[in-house]
């Protein structure tokens, strides 16, 4: 199941037959993301934030963006001991919305250590230049990629030696 299908089936609870179902669902998808981001309920806000950072541009209006920013501005810290503060994810999602709203056409100035490259391939921003290399002795996976939009070339090293994978993104 690729990321577009995952989002439509698991998050929107809709049918997915082909890629066009993703593009046709964008308005519905945006509406649900806004509802969750503005819900003030930690798991819904976190879930929507995590979904959103992996997506392409859903064309949020300035008004929608301002409303979301106001609603998430004073979220309380979680009482549950978690690996990290969920508000980091929320902040990242808001940054991506601001980034697209400032006119960005791809996500090349946004990638960082929390970004799995495979999702970006599935969503159509990046293409693989050569097969993925799994370095078993170092618990690493290496990707060489090109952005379809701005043509930036990337080398991404996924490290699996921690509790959760981290990603080193380097322009080549
Ligand atoms: Zn790019």
Radius of gyration: 17 Å
Helix amount: 40-55%
Average pLDDT, rounded to a whole number, is: 94
List the ions, cofactors and other small molecules found in this model: zinc ion
In N-to-C order, the SSE pattern is HHHHHHHEEEEE
The best one-word shape is globular
Structural class designation: alpha+beta
Supply the number of structural domains.
Answer: 2
In angstroms, what separates the terminal alpha carbons? 30 Å
Number of discrete helical segments? 7
Strand content: 15-25%
Describe the structure.
This protein has 172 residues and is of the alpha+beta class. It folds into 2 domains: 104 residues, no CATH class; 67 residues, no CATH class. The chain contains 7 helices and 5 strands, in the order αααααααβββββ. Strands 1, 2, 3, 4 and 5 form a 5-stranded antiparallel β-sheet that branches. The model has no long low-confidence stretch (mean pLDDT 94). The chain binds zinc ion.
């Amino acid at each position: 199941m690729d990321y577009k299908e995952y989002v439509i089936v698991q998050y929107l609870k809709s049918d997915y037959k082909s890629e066009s179902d993703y593009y046709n669902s964008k308005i519905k998808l945006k509406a649900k993301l806004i509802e969750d981001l503005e819900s003030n309920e930690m798991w819904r806000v976190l879930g929507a934030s995590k979904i959103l950072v992996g997506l392409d541009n859903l064309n949020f209006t300035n008004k929608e963006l301002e409303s979301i920013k106001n609603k998430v501005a004073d979220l309380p810290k979680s009482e549950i001991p978690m690996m990290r503060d969920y508000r980091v994810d929320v902040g990242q999602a808001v940054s991506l919305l601001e980034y697209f709203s400032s006119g960005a056409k791809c996500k090349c100035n946004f990638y960082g250590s929390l970004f799995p490259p495979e999702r970006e391939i599935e969503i159509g921003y990046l293409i693989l230049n050569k097969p993925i290399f799994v370095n078993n002795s170092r618990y690493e996976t290496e990707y060489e990629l090109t952005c379809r939009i701005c043509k930036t070339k990337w080398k991404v090293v996924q490290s699996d030696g921690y509790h959760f994978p981290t990603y080193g993104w380097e322009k080549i």
